[in-house]
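Progress against Task 2.4 (sequence-to-structure conversion) is shown through the following example record, which the project officer requested during the mid-term review.
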Amino acid sequence: MYKQHFGLTHAPLGKDCKTLWSNGQLDDIERLFKWLLNSPGLGIITAEPGLGKTAALRQLTRDLNPHCYLIRYLSETDFGRLEFYRNLAKNLGLESSYRRMDLWRNIKKHITQLATQKHILPVLIIDEAHNLSQEFLRDFPSFLNFVFDSRDYMTVWLSGHPELARTVDRAGNAALASRMQARCTLHPVDDRDEFKQLVLHGFTEAGCTHTLLSDAGIDLLRMASKGNPRLVHQLLVTALRLATDKKMNHLADDVLKEAINIHKQG
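Structure tokens generated for the chain above:
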């Protein structure tokens, strides 16, 4: 109802937003992402929940040529290492196996064929990587070892909460840390002007042709969300629904305060 009421094509800053707003952070990630496409290797992106890790990777992979890159996304990470490789084999269209050695052999053979015979670079994105087991992290460098460790046939991105970076840097994971060629961290949008640009971008992308919030309202939103885009999205949707019920054509400060209180209670 609120979309029709306000003439929006989708929720502001929601998952249907095709173009992400960037204050420079996304540009840095894009640069490193392209780097690992040209020189395959291992990268890590970390941030608190809701800051846009997955959205950034989704946008960066969206327009990649499928004749040159094979994108595979896995987020089921809260299982053992054997289950992970079975899931990876399934995503690659391979038969599973009960033995990890056989899984490794089949997967690595497939990856090698893609890279050397079809000239396709597999790009594996492991989301929620902070849930990966210590056994997996310890073994993963061996999995990435191709031809006496003389070739890099795939690019892998680990994406997760900040604890992931701390885990990788532990002494027991030195082999994994030494393979990291790119590290990215996303931060909240806490600058006032940048936050305003973020909100306006969200409404513009959703098809809004005029400003719905006052400057005071944007400040309320910034303080309540602490610059977290996902929370901004949730607060805006609640405010839009409240304003629709009240038959209002803008998001008054009182409506934003009501939306903020609803989220505090819920």
